[in-house]
Amino acid sequence: MSELARGFDLAAEAYEQGRPGYPAEALDLFELPASATVLDLAAGTGKLTRILVQRYANVVAVEPLNAMRAALERAVPGADARAGRAEAIPAGDDEFDAVFIAQAFHWFATDAVVAELARVLRPGGLLVLLWNRHLTAPVAPPLAEEFRRRVRELREEARVEDVYLDWRAALEHGPFEDLREALVQHDAVLDAEAMLAQVSSFSWVAVRPEAERRRLLAELRALLPETTYTMSLDTEVHWTRLG
Question: Looking at the domain covering 3-241, what would its CATH class be?
Answer without folding.
Answer: alpha beta
